[in-house]
Write a structure and sequence with these properties.
Elements (H helix, E strand, L loop, with lengths): L8 H10 L8 E3 L5 E6 L7 H14 L2 E4 L5 E6 L4 H10 L3 E2 L6 E6 L14 H11 L8 E6 L13 E6 L2 E6 L11 E7 L3 H16 L6 H8 L1 H10 L6 H16 L22
Parallel strand pairs: 6-7, 7-8
Antiparallel strand pairs: 1-2, 2-4, 2-5, 3-4, 8-9, 9-10
Helix pairs in contact: 2-3, 4-5, 5-7, 6-7
The structure holds iron/sulfur cluster.
Length: 281
């Protein structure tokens, strides 16, 4: 079995730079010149009708669908000229367009106490509220949220910037985790707190992160650089603030994400040195 691949250093560098620009948040550019679109599934739940609609979208615009580790369904192999139509079709089917840029990502979650025999709290209403309030809020770097219905943490709670898991009497909150080349396990910030307090904590963490981070710095690094206790004090200081301003900014940002004129489509079809992704049989 030959799994070798040639690293395209220039493409890698282009991709890192492009992701820093406005207008690149929903666009995934592939090695072969095609494009990828990350389809968001709110609460990670879908209806049969939605799945049928998505099957049509894959057939019409993409080479293949791929399940990401973040609970997105990624459409791979889209031609540049089909990109805007594919994005529209995804929204019309009741899915979200997910960001791959520098903002608050969707919430990765487990089914919680509605379905899991181990669940200590129900997850879906809290996930929906966090997404409706904060998703796509601009941040210095990507900001991931993971929510699990018990301490088993099936949603990888402690490997996200903001992680929450259920306890017998509320929710425990963790900050500063990440995956990647050098994973960091998030540290406990508070808990157990009532469900209504979770968005208050998320707002305070986001305010503190946006105020204290260096440009392009992930939360893990900010916490390491200034110290966990300093970060925790900053969060506690703004815990009482209302967060309508953040919610309004996030709403505007989501709208822009769904409508933005994506950059990087002009050189669509220009093949790089890698072979095209094969379509499945
Ligand atoms: S984290 Fe707990 S509640 Fe959620 S799926 Fe895993 S075992 Fe079930």
């Amino acid at each position: 079995m030959d799994t070798s691949a040639k690293l395209d250093v220039a493409l890698r560098k282009d991709t890192v730079e492009r992701k820093k620009q406005q207008g690149a948040r929903c666009l995934g550019k592939q090695r072969d010149g095609h494009f990828a679109l990350s389809v968001g599934v709110p609460n990670a739940c879908f209806s049969a009708a939605q799945l049928r609609a998505l099957a049509d979208i894959v057939e019409r615009y993409a080479k293949v669908g791929h399940l990401s580790t973040a609970q997105s369904m990624v459409l791979l192999g889209i031609e540049g000229q089909d990109y805007a139509q594919a994005r529209r079709a995804v929204l019309e089917a009741g899915f979200q367009i997910r960001s791959v840029g520098r903002d608050v990502f969707h919430v990765k979650c487990c089914p919680g106490a509605d379905y899991s025999p181990f669940g200590l709290q129900r997850t879906f209403a809290l996930v929906a509220h966090l997404e409706e309030t904060f998703r796509a809020l601009p941040t210095p770097q990507k900001f991931k949220i993971a929510l699990s219905g018990c301490p088993n943490c099936c949603a990888n709670t402690r490997l996200a910037e903001f992680g929450i898991h259920a306890a017998m009497n509320g929710w425990k909150i963790f900050v500063g985790g990440k995956m990647g080349f050098a994973p960091t396990v998030a540290r406990e910030l508070a808990g157990p707190v009532a469900a209504d307090q979770v968005p208050q904590y998320l707002a305070a963490v986001l305010r503190s992160y946006r105020a204290l981070a260096e440009p392009n710095e992930r939360l893990t690094r900010t916490v390491e650089r200034i110290g966990f206790e300093v970060f925790k004090s900053a969060v506690e200081e703004c815990l009482h603030l209302p967060y309508e301003d953040l919610a309004a900014e996030a709403r505007q940002s989501r709208l822009a994400l769904e409508q933005e004129e994506v950059i990087g489509l002009l050189d669509a079809g220009k093949s790089r040195n890698a072979a095209s992704i094969p379509a499945p049989d």
